[in-house]
Design brief:
This protein is an alpha+beta fold. The chain contains five helices and nine strands. The protein has a single domain, classed as L-fuculose-1-phosphate Aldolase, CATH 3.40.225. A hairpin with a 5-residue loop joins β3 and β4. The longest helix is centred in the first third of the chain and has 12 residues.
């Protein structure tokens, strides 16, 4: 879980995870597959939290993509984008870290260039989770996906959070 908190801190410092004061909502979340196979995700509305700690992370206990259900345990509820993370983990053990950020300029630059979801698919839904997984199947080693139906939203995934984070940072620096 230390890697999750460390990456979250790096992304928060860059403004890719945070709090939207206009709409009074947190944005961005991370998840990781632990060595024992357990899945951990940052909690809902923790984007504005300055320093993420274990008290801001939920352990996924069960989920049903089609029923739009995510069960979790811990001091917080799992992020509203957890279904999208979980759909990526279903691709297999090669996915060990997922990052969801908001980056308006990067989103605009990569939309239609990087794998991009159908703009009619709303975020936080089983349909978005399926759409992201559909695109990821073409790149099981990891990548960055633009969520066209979620303005400013991007998802990066990889073998672990270091790989997912490196892909995201490379994209933000223009080398993806």
């Amino acid at each position: 879980m230390a890697g999750l908190c460390r990456w979250r801190q790096r992304l928060h410092a860059r403004g890719l995870v945070g709090h939207d004061r206009v709409h009074d909502v947190g944005f961005g979340n991370l998840s990781v597959r632990a060595p024992d196979g357990a899945l951990y995700v940052s909690g809902t509305q923790t984007g504005g939290t300055e320093v993420l700690g274990p008290e801001h992370v939920a352990r996924i206990t069960d989920y049903d993509l089609e029923a739009n259900h995510v069960g979790c345990e811990g001091p917080v509820q799992a992020s509203s984008e957890s279904l999208t993370h979980l759909a990526l983990y279903e691709l297999g053990p090669g996915v060990g870290g997922v990052i969801h950020v908001h980056a308006p300029a990067l989103w605009a630059r990569l939309r239609g260039v990087a794998p991009t979801t159908d703009p009619a698919v709303p975020y936080g839904t089983p349909a978005m989770a399926r759409e992201v997984a559909r695109l990821a199947r073409a790149h099981p080693e990891g990548g960055v996906i633009v969520m066209a139906g979620h303005p400013d939203g991007l998802v990066a995934y990889g073998a672990d959070l270091d790989a997912a984070g490196a892909r995201l940072l490379a994209a933000s620096e223009g080398s993806a």
